[in-house]
Amino acid sequence: MFNAGDIPSTIGRSFTTTAIANPEKESNNKYFYFQTILMDEDVLVEELRVKDYQLGGRPPSYPPKSEFCGVALALEKPSLFDIEEGHSPTLHPNDIEESYSPPRHLNNLWYDDGSVVLKAGDDFFRVHSSILSQKSSVFATLLLQSQAENTETHKGCPMVTVGDDAEELRQLLLTIYEISYFEDNAQYFVYLRAILRLSTKYEMLRLRDLALQRLKCGVPTTLASFDDPKYHHERAIAQRNVLAVINLAREINCLELLPCAYYYCSRLPTSTIFGGNGGDVLALPDITACILGKEQLLKMQRKTTHPFLYTTPKHCYGFSRKNCGCENDRLLLEYLQRQDVTRPYTFEQFTDWEKIGMCKSCTPSRQYLESQRRVAWAQLPKIFGLESWEKIVA
C-alpha cells in the first residue's frame, strides 16, 4: 500500500497538458514534424498533498463527507478518445448516478406461522427460524442464543434485534424465501451490494459466491471478460457506482474486485476521487492508490498499449511519405489536440484508424495490440499496490 507521506505537495506549481505542432521551416515540400508534449516525464497527474486528509467513521463503508486541505480541484472534461463504447460508461463520471433499487415487493415478510421476529431499525420481519438456520450457521447460533437468554417478544413471538439496514435485510430475506428473486433483481447494484454484505456477515457462502460472480461481470478479473460485449450493461453500472464498489470490496474482503475498480476510478475527475459522490467517499488508502495508479496507467498507455497516439510512424516522415498511404499527418495532430489526455484509457480498444489518418501499412497489427494489452492487464494489480492476479483472485 502507499503512504500518504509519499505524495509531495505541489501547491503553487501548475502542470498542464498541451499538444503543439512544430512545423519545420517552409521549403519546397509540405511535410512537417510534430511532437505531443504531455507533462514532465515523472509527473502525469496533479501531485496532491494528502497527509492532512482525514476520514473518520466506519471505514471503509460509508465514511463521512471529507474535507480537503485547501487545494482547489478543477473538474476534468470528458475524454474524447474514439474508443469502443463497450468499455466506456454511458455517463460521464461527473454525472455518476446510483442505479435504481429493486421495485417494492408485495411480500411484507410477516408470516403468521413464523417462529421468530427479526428487528432491524424500526422494521419487523416475522420469519421461520428453521429456514434461517438451514441457510446460515451464524443465524442458527444467533437464534439458539436468543432462546437460551429468554429474549423479549414482539406480538407474542420471540424477537431478535440485528444491526443490519432494514432494507438490506429485507432483500436478503426475500432472496431466501423466493427462488427467482435473485435473478429478477441481480441487475441492480444496490441489491447485489446488500446481498454481498449480509451473505458475508451471515456466512451464506453459496449466495455470496453467486452474487460475487454477478458483480464480477461488471468488475472483471480477466481481460477476456473486460472485452466481452455481452457485459456492457454490467460494466456501465459498475463504473457509475465505482466508489461504492471499492468500499464494498474492502468491506467483504474481496481484493480481486479492486484492480478493475481502481482502473474505473482513475478515470474519474480528481475532485470526485477525493470528495466522493452521492454519499460514497473513499478511504485514504484507496484514494492514494487511485491517484498514484492513474499516473502509472498514463505512462503505460503512452509506452505500451497506445503508443501510436503519441507519435507519428517513422516511415510517415519526410521524403519516405511518398511510399506511405496515409492521408494527412495533420489528422493525427488535430485529433490529439481535441483529446483529454489526463484520463486513462489504457485498456480501451482503438479501432477508428481513419480518424487519425493512418493507412494500413502504418496501423499496428491487432495481434500486437492485443499482446500489449495482455501485458498491461497482468500488471494492473501491481500498478495499484496489490499482489498479482494469481494471489488475489479467490
UniProtKB/TrEMBL annotation:
InterPro entries: BTB/POZ_dom, SKP1/BTB/POZ_sf. SMART domains: BTB (SM00225). Pfam families: BTB. SUPFAM superfamilies: POZ domain. Residues 114-177 form the BTB domain. Signal peptide: none annotated. It comes from the Eukaryota. This is BTB domain-containing protein.
